[in-house]
Amino acid sequence: MNTDKRLEQGPHDDRVTVLAEPARTTAGIYVALVLAGAGLGLLVAPLADWLLTLPWAPMQGPAELAASIPAPALSAAGAVAGLLLGLVIQHEQLTLRLSDDRVVLMSRGREHTFRRDAVATVFRDGKHLVLLGHDGGELTRQDCALNAAHVTDAFTAHGYPWADTDPYQQEFRRWVPDTPGLPEGANAILKARQKSLEKKGAADDDVRELREELARLGVVVRDEKRRQYWRVPGRA
Q1: Which 8-state DSSP code applies to residue 84?
Q2: For position 147, which CATH number holds?
């Protein structure tokens, strides 16, 4: 996947590298979703008419309502739904601003800034970009669809220590209820997070927020196939 890369001039003549999704990619997503939504909208009326011909079928009430709406209106509603989905996707895209003294990550309407001297290691964990502090704790873990080679080159060019894999990978242990050795309250958060993880997946807001709660307790957690693995920085 391509990535939009540009150089900017920061304060004190600092070089700033900006990585973001290309505008043409974002525009393509919008066009595809709007067209798909409009097309699906056109299919609603024939499907509703077919359901109404059956002696028994679920959702008879909604089918009657859909059949009563003009096809152009259904197509327009589908296009609007596609546009809204495109806005959500754009809102969640990650943008990186890197300089020699700080890294700024912008995603989901939030901005996270970390000074260079606070970052001990940077690496990719599957689809995530991870920054570690000097105590081994995660400073942040962000969904990252940006070109992997461009991200690696940008961080190394600005002097950030890049790792090909998680240097603490061997310390993770699978979580089971009432696991001993965790900080007080961590098991309860992991239990709640496991329920959200199984129902909604790793991208759910509750799953993300509970990860942050665990980080405040000094617990690093990673997910594999809706299973949780944990470690406590400084404890092998």
Answers
A1: H
A2: 2.30.29.30
